[in-house]
Structure formats: C-alpha cells, structure tokens
Amino acid sequence: MSRHLLGIRQLDREDIAELLQTAMEFKRRVLEADFVPQPLNRVVGLLFFEGSTRTRVSFEQAAHYLGYRVTNFAAQGSSMSKGETLKDTILTLRHERLDALVMRHRCSGAPTFAARYFGGPVVNAGDGQHEHPTQALGDALTILERKGRLEGLNVAIVGDVSHSRVARSNAWLLAKMGASVRLVGPKTLMPNNMSKLPGSVYYDLSAGIEDCDVVICLRLQRERMDEGLLSSVNEYRRQYQINRQTLRYAAPDCLVMHPGPINRGVEMDDPAADGDNSAITRQIENGIFVRMATLHWVFQSNAGQPAAGTVAPVKKAKEKVSTVQSKVKVAKKASAAASHAKTAKKKAK
Q1: Which of 56, 70, 161, 344 has its CA 20 to 30 A from that of 128?
Q2: Does residue 161 belong to any structural domain of this protein?
Q3: Is 55 a catalytic residue?
C-alpha cells in the first residue's frame, strides 16, 4: 500500500518529527557536500494545475538531489484541455510508469482523489483552500532553526485565513507540536466555522501579535475585494500590515515569515520583509530540504521499512520531538563556535 502526504491534519507528532529530522539531515549533507543516498531510478511527475514558482522549482531541486528524474505536466496543452477527465489523466500517468505524483490543483481534495487511482505515492503540493503540507513543514523547519523549538511558542498567522491552505496546514502542524496558534485578520476573511481549526481568533492586530515569537503573514488575494470581503487594499494595510510600528507589539526577537509571493507594501513593508528578523529567504531554501524528506518518506512502506528497490532511510528519524529540538540547539551552538573561531583566527593574523 502506497504512502501519501495529502495533509498535515492526518499526521501525528511522530510523523512530523520524522519528516523534520530527515529534512535536517538532508540539509546538512547537501550544504556540506556530503553523500546523499540515491535509490534506484525513480520518476516523479509534477502535475500542476495552478501557477507556481517556489513549490515547483523546490520539488525539482529536491528530486535532483535525490537522484530522481522529473517529468513536468501542465493542464494547459494537455489532454484535459481537450475534455479528458482528471481520473483518466491520473490513470494515464499511472500506466506511463511514473513512480510518484506531486500535484497542485485549484480544487480542494483533488490530490486525495488522485491517490485513489494513481497506484503510487501522491504528494499534495497545494489543493484549493484545503492544505499545503510541505509549506508548513518548511516553515516549521525554519522556526526550529531560528528559535530552537516549536513547543511553547506563540505564533500568529495574519491575513486571509479563510481562503489560505497555508494557514490551515501551519495551524495544524504548530498546534500538534505544542505551539500556541493565533489566527488574526478581518472577520470577513475568517472561516465561518472556526471550531474546525486549532487556534484562537483575533480581529485586532495589536492584540493578536502581542508578545508573539513568530508572525506568519499570508498573501492578500486581490480578488477578495471583488467579492466584497474588503473595501480596499488601503483599509487592509492600515489595520493589518506587519511593519516596524506594529511589530513593537510582538516579542523583540519576533520572527517574520511569509509563504510568498509577497505583496510588498500591503501585507508587510520593506523593513519587515528584509530586516534581521525576517526568515523569508530561509523559508524558500528550507522548502527544498523538506521536499527531499517528503519524497524520501513517501517511498517508504507503511511499516517504516524501505520499499522495494530503495535504499535504507538516511536515519531512523522517529525520535521524540524534544530530541529533534535539542539537535537544532547543538547545531546552532556548533555554528556559533565555528564563527567565533574564524573571527579569532582573523584577528590573530
């Protein structure tokens, strides 16, 4: 039976810790030019029905580092533009001997539907207003690297929560890992049934981000104004923009994040996006390593052993969350020590 990554909600803490630990190990190996185990030939299909730069490229990079071959598909120009159903497209790809499928679709639940017919691992690269699991994993890895932990942190997710798959995946992951989640934004951009999402709701930005360790901004989709959910961009900017003034309510070392693409001057200003507390470029980089971990993970059998034709896992990564966090702290201390030694050597010269 194939293993899929269709959403964070279905994962337990142990699965999340395993994926993060494996991503950390892959990152170390890539950055240190260490050996990255490469299994037998695998072909991964990227089936994207929505535009994407970061997610598609990072999956391509992840597959490259793992030694997988990638085949790209786009809805435009495919048989679907001629009337073929999604089911028949998935069956076609299955019988063209693809080993895994990474799928982005405008409809919630499309990757789950694809998993019924594909016959191999399916990874959700974002589906409608449902979930974006690998984005949440990349965000969690970034927070771990900068803060050393997830448990006990206060994290505010600010913006259009109602229509955001990133908000849902992040809320589920952070809550499962012991963080306190706050959902902040206009009442018109909050889900109707908030009981289905973990976290506290705030309609006032200053109260919502007060003493927060992390603020994750969401992209404001301009079409929301056409739907009458916002009167204007200026109104949103005045009430919910993350900038130097509003960040005074958060913790002094508050980490600022954004899944991209950023509408500069709307969700956040330039100093917030480019300042020392911003982790946006680190989020992009870490997207590669969590997607390496994801592809590696889905090719393992449900019993946790390598599927036929693959190498053994990089590490036995099912460790306690506290162990994952302690390893981040050790890595940070080692990095600081190396930097200090390098500075001392320069002064000696």
Answers
A1: 70
A2: yes
A3: yes
